[in-house]
Amino acid sequence: MNDTQNRHLSSLTRNTLALVLAGGQGSRLHELTQWRSKPAVYFGGKFRIIDFALSNCVNSGIRRIGVLTQYKAHSLIRHLIQAWSFSKSELGEFLEILPASQRVGSDWYTGTADAVYQNLDIIRTHRPDNVLILAGDHIYKMDYGPLLSFHDNTHADMTVSCIEVPVEEAANTFGILEIDASGRVVGFEEKPACPRPLPGRPGYCLASMGNYVVDTEFLYTHLIQDADDESSSHDFGRDLIPKLIKEAVVMAYPFRDPDTQERAYWQDVGTLDAFWKANIELVSVVPDLDIYGDDWPLLTYQAHVPPARFVFNSDDRRGMATDSMVSGGCIISGAQLDRTVLFSKVRVNSWSTVENSVVLPKVTIGRRSRIKNAIIDRGCDLPENTVVGEDHDADRERGFRVTENGIVLVTPSMLGQDTHFTR
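RE: above sequence
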């Protein structure tokens, strides 16, 4: 890329306002989102899900960001203040928290389009050339610069970022795009039961990532029109995109690895099974998602905790971990971990084993416990001799949630423990 192209891309990112939609409940995560929104859910040993979209913005050179919050937003807002308050306002940078506050009428955010519409007055004060609308609940690393450049070069009114997914995974889950030979969107269905496969690629369809670039004036006009339409549910996928593809230029931007041009890593961890799988995959020798690369740092709140500690090394008990990730502040006291992700301040006591599990912060696992194929929510205090994941009938009798794939969720409330300090 030459200097002229670099300056043009820098101008595009500098004059773009990113709006991160972070108000979702994440109901398919069940009790894991009982006290927090989906974007605030922990991921990868030390992050929250929203950190990925925000890190993508910062690494892409987009430093003007609004985060739209609604459902049980306290822990999310606290995280945003702790982790993302480093913007330099004197340089025009900011991260603004935009909670649902009935700015227009008496309703809270009723849909993704309505959430943006209710903040049009704030958007106008920043006078962006483009608005980048992002879902705040997906796991991926993406440079938004090429997306903005594609939008500009194709003279699109709106560009939808998309990814190829297997048809069976997309059913009832994603918005599905149909495109012509030029990449223009000519059809769109929101969460169809039978997604239409891509021409020439049987078994795969083109799914919306929930990320859109929209020319600002075009956005104003069509959000106002949609707000006046009483038959609309005021959602981008259900209402605006199907309407816009008939009267405007809506382009599809395939998200691909810049080196291989193959499908890039992107995960919607919207179910307990998907959440568990995406976390456990991180302990692979060569994981599909590289969170260790220096060229695209993932930013988050850094707790002031000591390094992880492993103690005891005798034949009857040994503190050790294999194929695992262990965060700071953890103590592995004569226990063994295998294919496990521990978040910060977890203590696993002697003669216990933890396998194929995701353990969120501030969990204590008592002596002689056996934990397998589990998600242990923040703040759980598992008594001595606790067994999870070996007998699903017994797990259900104790009030634990067992997924279709045999993953067991344990939360403080299921143990009869205090939940108010655990978010």
